[in-house]
Design a protein that fits this description.
Helix content is 25%, strand content 29%. The protein is of the alpha/beta class. The strands form 3 sheets. Strands 1, 2, 3, 4, 5, 6 and 15 form a 7-stranded mixed beta sheet that branches. Strands 7-8-9-10-13-14 form a 6-stranded mixed beta sheet, covered by helices on one side. The model has no long low-confidence stretch (mean pLDDT 95).
Length: 258
């Protein structure tokens, strides 16, 4: 399975600009990947105090845009996440779209980041992470801060997931945590981790001097980083060897011994 990761800078409260950016990335860089991954909160970024007027509503703008790309390029898209108004609140909603345009997964960010006051602007998801199928392989999505909670990933692994897609806007201040946690999730679950982060300046009032870390990566079931970006916009490509997952799970059968 070939995956592509689009690591790019998200412009806050500029949905049209971000749409155009993603469309251009596909037009100029797509290379027949089975799966393409984009970052967290790509529609409006982290302009939290403006989301009440800017958030999508039940994915009615975000999903058709991604659906058209998936159909046009005949590829599955792990569509990051977007600020999304539903059920009388704004959620950080991740979703995925199959190559035929079908919406195959939605999940909401469960843990909200206290350092960014997310709880003042967003509702916490109460769903368990979903597993969904891509080309016959079970996968799941995790959103940024939820990476810090191993129970979330383990729930999906127990349901059969072999690949964990992590979408994020993770900052450079905690880059060491990002890299370590991604490898830890791969090792403890004997799975592939495919992580897509953003880059650029953080405009949150409490983090004016911070930047988004980049360092999107693919980690194999043995915890080895197969490919990793730096802190600039980048396109990553990697082959995921599904047979390596079962081999690792046989060699170190921790999941059987729980």
């Amino acid at each position: 399975m070939k995956v592509q990761i689009f690591q790019f800078e998200i412009k806050e409260v500029d949905f049209e600009n971000n749409k155009n950016k993603i469309a251009q990335l596909f037009e100029n860089n797509y290379t027949d990947a089975d799966v393409v991954v984009i970052p967290e909160m790509w529609n409006n970024g982290y302009a939290l105090n403006q989301l009440v007027n800017k958030a999508d509503i039940n994915l009615e703008n975000s999903y058709p845009f991604i659906q058209k790309l998936a159909q046009s390029y005949n590829t599955n898209i792990i569509a990051g996440s977007v600020s999304n108004y539903k059920n009388d609140g704004i959620y950080n909603t991740a979703f995925s779209v199959a190559n035929d345009g079908t919406l195959i997964n939605t999940t909401d960010k469960i843990h909200l980041v206290p350092m960014l006051d997310e709880h003042k602007f967003l509702e916490s998801g109460n769903n368990e992470p979903n597993t969904f199928e891509i080309n016959g392989v079970l996968a799941t999505q995790v959103i940024c801060y939820d990476l810090r909670y191993p129970e979330i990933t383990r729930t999906s692994i127990k349901a059969g997931a072999q690949i964990v897609f992590v979408v994020a806007q993770w900052t450079i201040k905690n880059l060491h945590h990002w890299r370590t946690l991604l490898q830890a999730r791969a090792i403890e679950n004997n799975c592939y981790i495919v992580a897509c982060n953003s880059v650029g300046k953080v405009n949150h009032e409490n983090h004016k001097t911070n930047t988004y870390a980049g360092h999107s990566m693919v980690v194999n079931p043995n915890g080895e980083i197969l490919i990793e970006a730096q802190a600039e916009e980048a396109i990553l490509e990697a082959e995921i060897n599904i047979s390596a997952i079962e081999a690792q799970r046989k060699a170190i059968p921790t999941l059987n011994d729980i």
